[in-house]
Every structure is written in C-alpha cells, then in structure tokens.
Amino acid sequence: MKSSYQKLSIALLLILTTCFSSVVFSAPDVTKNTNGIQAYTLVSGGGIDDLSIRLKDAKNQYISAYCLHQCGNWFASDPESDGYRLKKKYKGAKVWAELSFERNNDRIIGPGDDATLYFVKKIKLESIR
C-alpha cells in the first residue's frame, strides 16, 4: 500500500515539475526599456554611495533612476549628508533620457542583486531654468 502512494507521489511530482519548469525557465527578462528617449523634468537628485535623479514625465509621474556615470557633473558635495545633491541650477531642467528597468546585479549598494531598479542609459540636458 505504501508503495502505491509513493509511486503516485513521485508521478504527481514529475507532472508538476514538468508543468512549472516551463513557466520558471521561460520567464521574461526583467530588462525593460521605457520606450526609448523621452522628455522629463529634473526634480531632485543625489546620494552617498550611488547617485540617482528624480524625474517627472509628461504625465506628472515621478521616476527615480540611478545615474551610473551618465548624469555628468550635476552634483555638489552636501556636508549635511556626507554625500552629494543635485546642483540648484539643474532643478527644473528639461532633459531627454532613456531609462531601463533592470536587475541590480550588484551595481547599487543596498538593494539586493535581484532587486529591479531604473537606470539611466542616456541623458541630455535640453534647457536649464
């Protein structure tokens, strides 16, 4: 009797493994482009270990994205936080940026490797207020 339950359990386990392995292994890549280059307004930015910017899009939605050396010399030392903050002249600036939503992969200190974050792929200033 015990043997038939074991066989049934093994058969069920094999069926479930076969069904769900296609779901797990065919999961889409997390890297997503956010529709190419788009217009944004620079709202704020800064950081201690990793610099990021906060952007506002045409729909008034806010996105925070890590620069990874794409943002230029837009930050000044901030003695209050022992880090950096966006220079005042860049607040409200219009920019064209290409962002992607990707796994961290050990690029940013703090979030885990599997955390998905926005990263700046390209960015260009259009105008400064």
Automatic annotation (TrEMBL):
UniProt name for this protein: DUF2147 domain-containing protein
Signal peptide from the UniProt entry: 1-26
The keyword Signal belongs to this UniProt entry's keyword annotation: yes
Keyword annotations from UniProtKB, A to Z: Signal
Upper classification of the organism: Bacteria, Pseudomonadati, Pseudomonadota, Gammaproteobacteria, Moraxellales
